[in-house]
Amino acid sequence: MTEPADVLGSLMKYTSVQRWIRQLRKNSANMENGGVPAATLAYVKMAMERFMAFTGKNPDEMIAEAEEAMRRNGSTRDTDDLIDQFWDSCKTKTTAGNMFNTLKGFYKWNHIRLAAKTPKIPTIRKEEIELTNSIIRQVVSVAPIQHASWMLADNYLFLRVDALTMLTVEDFHTENWARDEPLYPVFINDKLSGTFSYTAFIGHDAMELLKTYFATRKFKSEDHPWGFRSSNMIDAFKKYAYKAGIIQAPNGVNRNGVPKGLCLLRTHGFRKRGQHVLEDHNIVQNRTDRMIGHQPSGSDGKHYSLLSTDERRDIYMEILPDLEIFGHHSQSPTSPNVASQKDFIMQMVKNMPGMNPEKLDGIQNLMKTVRTKAEVDDAFHNVMVMVKEK
Description:
The protein is mainly alpha-helical. It has 3 domains: 4-108, no CATH class; 133-322, hpI Integrase, Chain A; 336-388, no CATH class. 58% of the residues lie in helices and 3% in strands.
């Protein structure tokens, strides 16, 4: 887990910042990650440094000044005015609003509750690009193996990128990779998940890529295959998504080829994708939470929705056709939704004029190869072509 001192640097020498981060850690302990994410710490650093430049004071001096103003006025009026003026001085109001909210937290956890109203921040995630099999395939295909491997693995693991950096080769139980299986276990410990220990699984396509990656780098069991900073992984995902043509770079790219500004395709999309796939298969909410490493809410969820490794594997097998990116393993089941669509297409073509046994056999053989929703559309087009052929 990233240490605050690694990100915040010299800011951690101030008592007021130490107190603030301690409270952030307490809040995070009740959430899924068990620690303050590096991205949050980086934002804290940016907001505080900009506010220090605006006020000309360090964090401890800000708190001392606010306390003196409260004793003098009996209210937080002066500090409210100061933080409002800071918001007004920023050109980009979305960024200003986020920093405003962050800085109110700084004052709050130093026992100064400001009355200044937090500005409304525009909702910008509505246009976020949702990860699909096609998008993942395209990004993985242009990424180098050290990045393609974690992307394909996280398609099955549904982890945060900072958790991926903590995985070791031993967690993948590579002794199982000699067998031809549709799924392979991966151990997720409680420190990594921030909630509880459990066994997740990766598909055959991910295993094959990881096998190559691990062998070429000659990793040992205790090695971390992706010992990068999580920020480097996020940048890599943006870089290769841009290279694959999935996202644009209206603000240009930096010297490393990473698009500047807001990115509508996020690594968190792997967790969202897992949640959506599970919900599409009508997996109940508590079990969906457990599958992606969330602690279900309420005592019933925590104590009565536990999943054994075998139960997890059964759920993975059910959703496997929707997760496989590069081909389908011979033991991969067909999605129930796909099966009903295939039945509908077959019933339709059977009743079409001019249908003969030879054509019907050809169409049935074609439909046997269809295993995912994305393949249904292609199959339907091909079936229409076959029907029209004389």
